[in-house]
Specification:
This protein is an alpha+beta fold and 83 residues long. It has 2 helices and 5 strands; from the N terminus they run βαββαββ. It has a 5-stranded antiparallel β-sheet, covered by helices on one side.
Length: 83
Amino acid sequence: MNQYLIMCRSLTRAQACKSLLERSGFTVTVTKAPQKLTLSGCGYAVSIYRKADEAVKLLHSKNMLSGKIFRRNDDGAYEEVAL
């Protein structure tokens, strides 16, 4: 099962995205983003394993999508994806 990270500009934004997604039936967590995925070395992401494409569409429709989206591969490496 693939893990997707939806990058957020701040912890507050990540928590708002998590809240919206959970109210819509998604199971998500807020996590500190891996350092190699952020320009400044700090950042937060919403982690989701199922229905990532639907979650991204919802966030986009509410104008809450502000960062890149990454998929964690089986080898642990992250790959940017467009959903």
